[in-house]
Every structure is written in C-alpha cells, then in structure tokens.
Design a protein that fits this description.
The structure holds three protein chains of three kinds.
Chain A: H1 3-15, E1 19-20, E2 34-40, E3 48-54, E4 61-64, H2 71-92, E5 96-99, E6 108-111, E7 117-119, H3 122-135, H4 149-164, E8 172-174, H5 175-180, E9 183-184, H6 189-192, H7 195-202, H8 210-217, H9 232-248, H10 252-285, H11 293-309, H12 323-347, H13 349-358, E10 361-370, E11 374-375, E12 382-383, E13 386-390, E14 402-405, E15 412-419, E16 422-429, E17 448-452, H14 486-490
Parallel strand pairs in A: 2-7, 7-8
Antiparallel strand pairs in A: 1-9, 2-3, 3-4, 5-6, 10-13, 10-17, 11-12, 13-16, 14-15, 14-17, 15-16
Helix pairs in contact in A: 2-4, 3-4, 7-8, 9-10, 12-13
Chain B: H1 3-12, H2 22-27, H3 35-42, H4 47-53, H5 64-91, E1 101-104, H6 114-130, E2 134-138, E3 142-146, E4 149-153, E5 158-162, E6 165-171, H7 183-206, E7 217-223, E8 230-236, H8 238-251, H9 254-259, H10 273-278, H11 295-304, H12 313-318, H13 325-333, H14 343-363
Parallel strand pairs in B: 1-2, 6-7
Antiparallel strand pairs in B: 2-5, 3-4, 5-6, 7-8
Helix pairs in contact in B: 7-8, 13-14
Chain C: H1 5-20, E1 26-30, H2 37-50, E2 55-59, H3 62-75, E3 81-84, H4 93-96, E4 102-104, E5 115-119, H5 120-123, E6 131-136, H6 144-150, E7 154-161, H7 188-195, E8 201-203, E9 206-207, H8 215-222, E10 229-230, E11 238-241, H9 249-260, E12 262-267, H10 277-292, E13 295-299, E14 302-305, E15 311-315, H11 318-328, E16 336-339, H12 340-343, E17 348-354, H13 365-368, H14 370-376, E18 380-389, H15 392-397, H16 416-428, E19 431-433
Parallel strand pairs in C: 1-7, 1-8, 2-5, 2-6, 3-4, 3-5, 6-7, 9-10, 12-18, 12-19, 15-16, 15-17, 17-18
Antiparallel strand pairs in C: 11-13, 13-14
Helix pairs in contact in C: 2-3, 6-7, 8-16, 9-10, 10-11, 14-16
The chains are: A alpha+beta, B alpha/beta, C alpha/beta.
C-alpha cells in the first residue's frame, strides 16, 4: 500500500467511518446485476449447500440442497442455478448493436448488454469457478446423464471466472473487492474481507459508528458470514439437525416439513448478506461513473458476444491452460493491467494522486507558455510548444521521458528539464495538424495541469505466438488435442 | 529441572501444561516476534482458556461436517491395512513396493504412559531400518524438545519406511483439483509435516542414523478432484524445516524475555490476569486472527491504544514505523511539529495529505 | 593439490563446446557472478559460426545486445555480424565503433550475416525464419513465455545465465498456472529443463570478478549446492587510497573495505521511511569520500585508479535511487546509481549498497528475495561497502513465515531469509558504527 492509502485508513479511524479513495466509480454496474450469495458445505471442495440469487432485491430466489452429500440433489441444484444464470444470459442477447464491419469485411455485432454477476467476496468467485469446473464436463447422455443446462452452466461459470482475472473486466465482481476500490475503512485489509464489517465502516446503520457496526458484523449470530463458508456453530447446532431431519423423514409430509425447516434456517443465513449486497450496489450506483468505464464495458460486451456466438461449436474449457494458451493469456492480462491502471488514473484525480506521490505524475500551475514554438532543426518545422509548470510534487521523470496530460491523454509531450519545483514540458502532439495549435489545445499560463508518463509506452506490435500444434520442444512440444472424455463426464462428485 | 523450566511452571500456575501438537508447534513459526506468545507457549499455557477468561474467546470452531469428512476420508485411505494408500504409493508415486508390513502404534492396549509408547515407537523404528522391504507405522508417538521440555507428538500420520528411508505420509481432506490445492492449506500441511519430519529425524539420529534417513519429501494424500478417491503427491518441506529449526532454537532464547518479567508474575485465572498478560509485550498484526488464540485480546489492546499495527504490517512500514495513529495524523495535518528523526515521515505524510486534499477538492 | 582456476574453468568451457557438437538440442550453462559468461558467449558464437552454422543471439536488453556486439566485433572481426533492432534505434557509441556491423529492422536484410543478434523482445516479433543455432544470454532473467515465442526460430540452443540473480516477474498476480511445467511466469531455463531433463547442464566454476574475499561468502549464501571459487588468490587484488583516512566512521568503513573486501557501516537502529535520509546521506557520502581519497586498484589486470566509472551505488527501490542520486550531487558525477534490477550483469571495482532491509520494521517477500541481495553483493572486483541501520537481525528473527505453498512448484533455493542471515553474519565481522 502507498502512503496515500495508509493515510486514508488513518483518516477513517479518526472519522469513525470509511473515507473515499476514489472520486468516481471504476467499474460498470449493470442495471440488472445478478447477485449470487452461495453457501458451501464445510469440509467439501465444492458441495453446494444453498444460494440466494436474483436480479431484483425484492425477489430473491433461494436454491438449496437438502442433503448436500447427495449427488443427484447437487445436480438438481446446478440445474436450478443454470436456469437463473442462463436465463439472464439470454436476456442480454436480445438487443444487438451493429458495428462497422471488420477489416476483412465480416459483419460485427455486439450485444446491447452483458450479464454481470456479483458475489460477496473473493471466496465466492472461487466457489463459482469450482462449481464451473465440477459441472462443465458433464454429459446429458451415458451412465450419469445430467440436465442439459448443467454443462452449459459449467462452461459459462468458467468463462465468468476466467474473465474475473482480467484487470478492468466487470462481468463478475466480488463485492468486498469492489468496495475496497472505492473506500478505505479503518480496519485492516484482512478484516475488510468481511462484507458486513466493511459495509459497517462505509455506511454504518443509524446511531452506530463504523467500528461499532464492524464489531457487530463480526458476531456470526448477529451477522451470518457472507459465505461460501458457513459458521461452524450454525453447522453444528442448526444445520446438522435440520439435515438429519430430512434424512430421517419417513413420508412425504415429513419430507416437506424437513425441507421447509431447511429453507427457513438457510434463508436466515442468507438474507442478511443479500440485503448487504443490494445496499452496497446502491452505494456504488450513487458514484458517478469514470470516463473510461464505458469503453471497458464495451470490451466486456465484445467478449460476451464472442463467447455466446461460438458457444455451440465450442468445447468445455480445458482443465489447465496449455503452454501457448497460458502465454497468450498472460500477455493479455498484462496489457489489460497496464491500460486499466492508466485509465483509472486518468478518470480519477484521487488515483492519479498515487502516481504524483511516486513521481510518475506531477500536477501544478502553468507559469510560462510558448504555445506557438516551432522546432526547426529538422527538414520541416514542427509545432513544439513549451510549458513551464510549477509543482510541489516530487517529480521523478527523466528528461526525454514521454508524458501526456491527465485531463486529455491525447495531448502528448516530453520532459525537457526538471529543476527546483519547476518542470519544462515540450508538447509534441494532440494540438491539431497545423503549425499553430488548435484553439484550447495548449494550456495557458495560470491553468492547473497534470502530466504523467502513464499510458505513454509506445504501442508494441501484435505479438506472435506459435499455434498450439507448433508448441516448441522447449515447452514439451505440441500437447495432445484436448477432447473431453467419458471419464471427465463421469467424474465422481461425492 | 532447569531454572527456566521452574520459572515457566510458576508463570503457568496451577494449570496443567498444555500438550503441544504439530499444529501448536507449527504455529510457533507464524509470529516469532511476539514476546507474549513466546512466553505463553514456552510455559505451555492454555491460550484458549486464557483468552476465554479475558472475554475474548478465540473464534476457532470446527464444523462437524468438516470433521466427519476428514475422518471418513482418512479411514478410507487406511482401510484394510492401508490398501488404498499402498496402491497410491505404487501407481502415483511409482514406488515398487512388493509387500509391506503395517503396524498401528496407536493402540498398544492398556494405558501405558506416553513415555512407554514413545519407547515402543523407538524400538520398532530401530528394527525397521535393518530389515524388511517396507513398513508403514501408523500413529507413531514422537518427541520433540520445546524450550528445553519434551513434548510428545501423537501424529495422525504414517511413517513409511522404504529402502532404508522414512517418509512422512500426511493425509488431508482438502481436495487436489487438477493438480492444484488451496495454497494456504498446503502450507499449513507442510508446516505440520515438517514438525514430524524433524521429530522423526531427532529420533533416528538418537538411534545413530543419519538425518537424511528421514526424507524431506513428505507424501501428501488428498481427495482427488471432487471425489473421495485419494491421490498423492510429494511435498518438499525443506523451507518449512529450516524455519522450524530456526524458531525452535530461538525459543530457548525465551529466558531473556522471562528474566525481565516481574518475579511474582503469574497467568493464573483471576483479577490480575489481564494485567499479567499485558505486561508481556505483544506484536499484534491482523493475520494473528487466523492463527493465535490470543488475537482478539491483542487486537482490542492494539486498537485501544491507537496502534497503526492494528491496520496491518505494511501500513506501519509505510508510515516509517510511526506506531500511533494519532501521531501520524497530527504529522500529516501539520498540527504536530516532528522531532528530527520523524521529519521525513512527516514530510511524506504532509505531501500525501496535500495530494489527497487537492484530489478530493478537484472532484467536488 | 593446488587449484588452477584457469585450467578448471577452461575444462568446463571445453566441455560446453564439445557438447555443442554432440547433438543435444540444448545445452545449459550456469554462470555465477563474473564467471566469464560473456566470454563464453563470444567464444561459443565464434566456435559455431566458425563451423559454418548460422547463429542467432538473444539478449535481454538493448544494453546487453550492444555490449555483446562490441565484444564479438572486437574479438572476431571476421564474423559477419548483424543487429536486428526496432525502428528508432540509435546505435550506441560502442556499436557505431564497428562500422562493419549491419543494423537492420528486418531479418531478411541480414540473410547474409552469419551471426544476428537482437533482444528477446525483437526476436519475438518475428513470425518466420529459422536458425540452426541460438545462444540465449541471461536466460534465467527471461520469462518462459518469451522463450515460447521465439523458440520456433532456432533448432538448437545454448542457454547461458546466472541462476542466483533476480527471477523474472509479472505485473499481474495469477495463480492459475502454478505447478504447471510450462508456467509462463517461470524462467526460461526452469521450463526448458522441466521438459528436457536430459539436457547437459554445466557450471562455470570460477568467478573472475569477485575477489577471494567475496567468492566464498557469495557462493555459500546464494549458491549453496553449486559452489564456485575466486579466480584470484587473497592478495592478488589490493585496494589503496592516495589520501589517508581521518578516523571518521566513513573513512574507517572504507579502510575496512580496502583491507578485507567488506564493510558494514551501521547506523543507529530506527524504523524509517524507505528513503531514510540519514542512510541515503551516509551511502552517498561513502561514494564521494571514496572518490576524494583517490582509490587505486591493483589487480591481475594491473594498477588503475578507482574513478567514478568504477564505482556503483546500489539500492532496492527506485525512490531510493532518486534520493541517492540527489544526495551524490555533482561531487559524485559519473558514479552509477541503480536498483538491483538494473545492476544485473554489471561490474565495478567498488560498490556501496544501501541494504534493502535497513530501517524496515517488517520484511516483505520483495525485501527478502535472495536474488536482490545477491546482485547487490556480487558486483564488485575489490570491495563492497554496505550501509544499514542496526536491528536487521532482530527483524529477520521476527519475520513470520506463512508463505502459501503451491503443489508441484519446485522449492526455490536459497531461501531469502537464510541468504540474508548468512550475508549479515559475515558483514557483522566488518562492522563500523557510524
């Protein structure tokens, strides 16, 4: 963490409530996010116990597995969840935006919406990933046939989880992480992992301070955990007897009573988190959206469109990435990280402040300006205005370093000299094509400006990766083509 | 009995010393800078009981579902003289084991003391190295000296002797999915296994064997993917062994801390307990909550005195070691004139405060 | 029996060259600091090109490419040498000094050249072309995904590098590839050997850079299983000052370093911000004082003054480097000041190092990374002066060890904690209190 982040936490302690670390919202928020609050049976890798799901805060749907060790009941749960998730995916495919055709002339479209799933925390993301893994290889025929929706759910959940790793993507969000991107609490980041406690700091209930609300949130009775792990004493004292009741039910009436009891106790564990999730969504919605959020949402929609359109002919995702896919993906993630970091800083002065603190950006007032300066050393004169900026920031940019304006990244420049609280910048681009700058494009004396080296690394060409059939000998040679096997489809889920 | 041991006994008071197990020994490595924890552990004090007495009961419950699952899995792996385990060792790890003797040292009949059982373990291990193609010893009773006192370990593990070399086999019920498992759980298994490897090494060196007779490669047995079927992999615990050695050696340095405590100090339950605990300095950090029974007490203490450490290790470091939140804030807003050694920290904080103010101002 | 370093190293080089002709797809050479890696690369290049093979050379930075060009062109002017570079590359002085070296942006323009050299990043932009041989320099600093991208360009390769230096890193933290033998985040050599365990691995046994006072210390701390020795004997290298010391702690530290090859200037214990101005001032002052006192280095290469170009100041963080440069000011003009990352592969007579753990309250994995300390402690031919606040042993003692463990990921040696401890224990014998 930076000194800036540290300071924000200290301020939160002093204020008794969270303080902002962002001035805009840095993630897209769907008009109809699909909230999923999952619970898992303790001790199992991925035995779903229950989930509260839905796109309407007033109408949560409770899915649960009355005997989580029963494989058939687990698949029934998966099928029910699939109905909700696939249903939402289909809704998003109804509106289509026509895009200009690609270079090779193929038509391009983009779905008007992309589905967005929000879970309470990172463990929730892990649960969805594992649920995806345990269901995507299933078959609808053969020895252990499942509902056709189950393997589809598995592939989609895997896709969501993969997309979660991509910096700046907002198709799957973990609420605690999203909140932490916007607020700093007065507790440690470990404690921020508790949604109720974190929200207690951000938006304490009437009459409570942040720390009081957070303390209350740590009591598992007053505030059940946000899952997927359950509270052990709930397991031992409430859940175990209720499941035993289901197992021992002698007839239909007994069974339906037992189910009703399970529904009640599981609901009691899920409803508080469900309500927190929507409260948090409300808080995030109240923030103005960052300028680059829409562009990132477009990438998400492109990704969604492509996956949905190719779903039919595709296979379930492999268990692990092969060498070529791993390298491609890493490359992709690194580029996404770079542009996400830069975009957030451009969108938000509070994020840019981090870079000003480390000297990769500086802000100040223009004290001198030569807007029509020409560089006539070359064959043709070039427009190269000079700006002198007075700043109190600890500038750590070497002469020659390319920079751009935070307010308008299209305005490019180069550091000429840094000395005693003043920086001389030569502007090199973003002022029009003529030898005099477009009106308004060059800052004037007295203007507040901020320049940064972020996002100025020259675009690297498209990288070459071998085809997977050409995986070199250094990496084990071409891997066998992955074709899901019967064994995959029949993998035990016990 | 050494002076230190006598002193630690007095600190503990009337209570029985708590038995160490691999988990508590492994936990010694998790916050070695904490004097409070060091003293309580060295004296074998039941931290769980003390924390509860102080009104800060540790939140370490275990779900019966998890316990059941663990027991069922272990029983399954060990069923029929460890039949499944053997086929794993053969198929998964490629060991050519023709036949194997299985000895459960857990049940010897009667109620021998642990000393007697440890002696029996010793005896059997001594014999095993000389003869036989392979042997599985279940529930061996091992011994490790902790701060000069012997601690008996009743490992729920199997020591596997093969071609004159021992491997510890650790059976865990967390899943290995497509070759990966939860890194935190694997780390915890590795730390515990390292305790057994070390204890077993001590035993075998006492018997005149080379330390390397016990492999640093532990066999980790876990359920595969989403099934109950076990799978196995080797786990190299050399880093954990090194840490453990280091910290056990350091525990003997506890006498320095103890020497500075008031002579009449005791951790007996009662009105003086909180004061007694406070008199030994803690080094609280938020990750204590996941491993130490005293954590909530220490957190409360750290928060009450406005310690920056309560917010995380890295924050305190970012603040150049300023340990009071109030001081840091006063330096940031300029209301406190910094002493010379804090001048830079103060300048950094003021710059951060200015940038924050400017950015928030610009946004409004 | 006496140890003849030249013969010992020569035997390994001969074995490497013999292996190049033995039909292996790859040959790996581990090279501890200053063990003659570049010399080996130049020799192997001449050897292969001499045998009529077309050869590509992969280096990691433009700086390294230019260094190699200079060495090859100087040592083997008969070789047709081409440099492949990105648009906008301006040849450095040491490349411009060899007009015969052809510089081109397209590989096709270098078809006639028997040796073509470029950065890994440049090679990775090529989608076609094939060379019978490649030499990959600094292969432990190259990520395996980079190797994947350029491995299609060569049939066989010699991989040379230092396993003790900093591992490659990524800006993203992802666990999905942990445990895979082709994990793109692992080093090129580690992935290569995981898939081709039969490849011969050689170790250069002699450090020609590190003096007799440093080789055993660095070898034991950072290369516990694959030791190396100094190429020179105690007394072969001497560091003297023209001006006598004045008895100040700085002078005493410099005298200790001149006499023993090591010194630790210890400041009072205190937790500080990273750019601890007292420590920064002390570090800069040592370098300046070293210049003032007119160091003279005697070695097997003869006698030469220790001028600014022969001194480096090293630190862990970039903000420390900025602060150090400012503190050095004009008095330290010409002295190299950089982070461990950027000092990799460089060599100086004397180094002054701000210890990564100085003033810290808690050590992070970054601070403890053994490669970082290894780089900082192994750049010198004569002496290394370390500046640190007291209290690092206590900090190491209190370091919690709860690192997550991934299955099937080879354990990294040496452990950063152990390595730090070993170096610190050695430095304690050369301590001067400020």
């Amino acid at each position: 963490m930076s000194a800036l982040g540290a300071l924000a936490r200290l301020e939160a302690v002093a204020a008794g409530r969270a303080v902002p670390v962002a001035t805009v919202r840095h993630c897209h928020l769907s008009e109809r996010p699909l909230v999923i609050v999952p619970l898992r049976l303790a001790g199992e890798a991925v035995a779903p116990l229950a989930a509260m799901v839905g796109t309407d805060p007033e109408r949560p749907r409770l899915l649960f597995v009355p005997q989580p060790r029963n494989r058939d009941l687990r698949f029934r749960f998966a099928a029910e969840l699939a109905e909700v998730v696939l249903g939402r995916i289909e809704e998003c495919r109804t509106a289509v935006e026509e895009l200009p055709p690609a270079k090779d002339g193929t038509e391009r479209v983009r779905y008007g919406e992309a589905p967005q799933i929000i879970v309470p925390n990172q463990a929730g993301v892990g649960f969805l990933r594992m649920l995806g893994r345990s269901t995507r290889f299933r078959r609808t025929d053969g020895p252990y046939p499942v509902d056709p929706a189950v393997p589809m759910l598995g592939r989609w959940l895997t896709w969501f989880a993969d997309r979660y790793e991509r910096p700046g993507a907002a198709l799957l969000l973990a609420m605690t992480e999203t909140l932490r991107l916007h607020w700093a609490s007065g507790q440690s980041s470990l404690e921020d992992g508790n949604l109720a406690a974190l929200l207690g700091w951000i938006d304490p209930p009437e009459g409570l301070t942040g720390p009081q609300a957070a303390a209350l949130a740590e009591d598992p009775v007053a505030s059940p955990p946000a899952g997927p792990a359950t509270d052990p004493s709930f397991d031992n004292e409430v859940l175990a007897p209720a499941i035993a009741g289901y197992d021992e039910a002698a007839d239909e009436t007994g069974l339906s009573h037992a189910k009703e009891r399970l529904r009640t106790v599981l609901s009691s564990q899920l409803v508080p988190t469900w309500e927190l999730m929507w409260r948090a969504i409300g808080l995030l919605r109240a923030l103005p959206e960052g300028a680059n959020v829409a562009a990132r949402h477009d990438r998400d929609r492109d990704s969604f469109t492509w996956y949905a359109e190719t779903f039919e002919e595709g296979f379930p995702q492999a268990r692990r990435d092969d060498a070529v896919n791993a390298a491609r993906r890493l490359h992709d993630l690194e580029r996404a990280q770079e542009s996400y970091d830069a975009q957030r800083a451009f969108d938000d002065p509070l994020v840019m402040a981090e870079y000003r603190l480390t000297g990769e950006a500086f802000g100040g007032v223009v004290t001198e300006c030569l807007p029509t300066r020409l560089d006539e050393t070359g064959k043709k004169p070039k427009l190269r205005p000079w700006l002198r900026v007075r700043t109190g920031d600890p500038v750590r940019l070497e002469p020659g370093r390319a920079v751009c304006s935070a307010a308008r990244p299209g305005l490019k420049g180069r550091i000429v000299e840094v000395a005693a609280g003043e920086v001389l910048v030569e502007l090199t681009g973003g002022m029009g094509r003529k030898l005099t700058p477009e009106p308004g494009s060059v800052p004037e004396v007295g203007d507040r400006v901020c320049f940064t080296s972020l996002g100025t690394d020259s675009a690297r060409g498209r990288p070459n990766f071998p085809e997977r059939e050409q995986t070199p000998w250094t990496h084990g040679g071409p891997p066998a083509e992955y074709v899901p096997t019967d064994e995959d489809a029949q993998e035990a889920w016990s | 009995m050494t002076d230190l041991a006598a002193r630690l006994d007095r600190l503990r008071g009337a209570a029985q010393p708590r038995n160490h197990d691999a988990r508590t020994i492994a936990a010694l490595t998790s916050n070695p800078g904490c004097a409070r924890r060091g003293v309580l552990d060295a004296a074998g004090i039941d931290k769980d009981a003390i924390a509860a007495e102080l009104g800060f009961a540790a939140p370490f419950g275990q779900s019966q579902f998890a316990i059941t699952r663990g027991n069922v899995f272990e029983a399954q792996v060990k069923a029929d003289g460890c039949a499944e385990l053997l086929s794993l060792l053969r198929d998964r790890l490629g060991l050519s084991i023709p036949e194997v003797a299985y000895d459960d040292l857990g049940v010897v009949g009667g109620n021998e003391s642990r000393k007697v059982r440890h002696a029996r373990t010793r005896q059997l291990f001594a014999r095993a190295l000389g003869e036989g193609p392979g042997t599985l010893f279940d529930h061996p009773l091992l011994r490790l000296d902790i701060a000069g006192q012997p601690a008996y370990l009743e490992p729920d593990v199997i020591a596997f002797q093969f071609e004159g070399r021992f491997h510890i086999i650790e059976i865990k019920s967390f899943a290995m999915i497509d070759g990966q498992a939860d890194p935190a759980q694997v780390a915890s298994a590795a730390r515990q296994s390292a305790v057994y490897v070390l204890a077993l090494r001590r035993l075998l060196t006492e018997l005149g064997h080379d330390e390397d007779t016990v492999s640093h490669e532990v066999v980790l047995v876990c359920p595969e993917n989403f099934s109950n079927r076990p799978t196995a992999t080797f786990l190299d615990v050399r880093p954990q062994l090194a840490v453990l050695r280091r910290q056990l050696a350091r525990l003997t340095g506890i006498d320095r801390i103890v020497a500075e405590l008031p002579a009449d100090l005791t951790f007996e339950p009662g009105a003086g307990l909180a004061g007694a605990v406070r008199s030994v300095e803690a080094r609280y950090s938020p990750d204590c909550v996941s491993g130490c029974e005293m954590a909530l007490f220490c957190r409360d203490e750290a928060r009450a005195c406005g310690s920056t450490g309560a917010l995380g290790r890295s924050i305190r470091d970012d603040l150049g070691g300023v340990d009071s939140i109030a001081t840091a804030l006063a330096l940031a807003d300029g209301s406190l004139e910094p002493a010379e050694e804090l001048a830079e920290t103060a300048a950094g904080l003021r710059l951060a405060a200015r940038l924050r103010r400017e950015a928030l101002g610009a946004a409004s | 029996m006496t140890f003849d370093p030249g013969a010992e190293a020569g035997r390994v080089v001969d074995a490497v060259l013999a292996d190049l002709a033995a039909g292996h797809r790859g040959v790996v050479v581990d090279s501890p600091p200053g063990a003659g890696k570049s010399t080996l690369v130049v020799r192997a290049a001449a050897h292969l090109a001499g045998a009529g093979e077309r050869l590509m050379i992969v280096a990691q930075t433009n700086e390294q490419v230019d260094d190699l060009i200079d060495r090859i062109a100087t040592g083997h002017p008969e070789l047709a040498l081409g440099r492949l570079s990105a648009a906008g590359y301006a040849p450095s002085a040491r490349v411009a000094a060899h007009p015969a070296v052809r510089i081109a942006q397209k590989a096709a323009d270098l078809d006639e050249h028997s040796v073509v050299i470029a950065t890994a990043a440049k090679w990775a932009t090529l989608a076609e072309g094939s060379w019978p041989w490649a030499i990959v320099d600094e292969a432990y600093q190259m990520r395996s995904d980079m190797l994947l991208r350029l491995a299609g360009r060569f049939e066989r390769a010699l991989f040379v590098g230092d396993p003790g230096q900093l591992d490659p890193f990524s800006t993203v933290e992802v666990e999905r590839w942990a445990g895979l033998s082709w994990d793109p985040l692992r080093s090129a050599v580690s992935v290569l050997l995981a898939h081709n365990p039969e490849l011969p691995v050689h170790r250069l046994p002699v450090s020609w850079r590190l003096p007799a006072s440093a080789a055993p210390v660095v070898s034991e701390a950072f290369y516990p299983f694959t030791g190396f020795r100094a190429g020179t004997a105690p007394g072969d290298r001497r560091l003297e000052f023209s001006a006598r010391g004045m008895g100040t702690p700085h002078d005493r530290a410099l005298d200790e370093a001149a006499a023993t090859g090591w010194a630790l200037l210890e400041l009072p214990a205190r937790h500080t911000v990273r750019t601890d101005s007292e420590a920064v001032r002390a570090t800069a002052a040592l370098a300046v004082r070293l210049l003032q006192r007119g160091g003279v280095a005697h070695s097997e290469r003869g006698t030469a003054p220790v001028d600014a170009a022969r001194i480096a100041v090293g630190a862990a963080h970039r903000d420390q480097v900025t602060a150090l440069r400012a503190a050095l000011g004009p008095a330290g003009a010409g002295v190299t000041v950089d982070t461990a990352n950027r000092l990799q592969g460089r060599e100086y007579d004397v180094t002054v190092v701000l210890h990564p753990l100085s003033g810290r309250r808690d050590a992070t994995a970054f601070h403890l990374e053994s490669g970082r300390l290894c780089v900082l402690a192994s750049r010198h031919r004569h002496a290394c002066v370390v500046v640190a606040r007291a209290g690092i042993p206590e900090l190491l003692d209190a370091h919690p060890s709860a690192e997550p463990v991934h299955l099937n990921v080879p354990v990294r040696f040496p452990d950063g904690w152990e390595a730090n401890q070993a170096i610190l224990a050695h430095l304690a014998e050369h301590r001067v209190r400020a």
